[in-house]
Amino acid sequence: MRIVGALGVALAGLSVIGAVTAYGQMDKRPQYEGTTAAVVDDKGNLQVPSDYRTAYQMLGSWAVAKEDGPGSKDLHVVYASPGTIAAYRKDGHFPDGAVLVKEVFHATTQDMTTGTVSSAGTLAGWFVMVKDSVGRFPENKLWGDGWGWAWFDATDPQKTTSTDYKTDCQSCHVPAQESDWIYTHGYPPLNR
To answer: How far apart are CA 176 and CA 25, in angstroms?
Structure first.
């Protein structure tokens, strides 16, 4: 009986050790960090995440007005990787590893019963940004000022046409430099 009791105590002890070890090895990173691997390779090359429409949260949309008449020229729809909105609301900063995906559509404009209406037409491409607060890829010209930056034509979501974020991407974001290069005022979920 003593052997059975000692064996039971030993097995219970091993179970506790196993559970504690397993807990200690669990991935305790915030949820948004896991999404970075699907967007960035080990050299800092970016791609459009294939599941952004279903797994990401919508941040908001922008309409770019036509220069020669009523309606919009482009529509931009922006998504954030899981956990980004909650983290931003918590401390007012984009968390390291957060991914933003902006779809850019050429707009179609027509008269409707509600007035002149612009809606998404053909997809022009995507703009992808990945928050990088530690400077992971100093040799890659698509990384700097706290972000990875890349434009992708609609024909290839895995190969960027950007070559240098300073000349290809950042100029559109200069007015938003004080808010970490992101036009946060246009995203209602961040400002509640």
So the answer is: 40
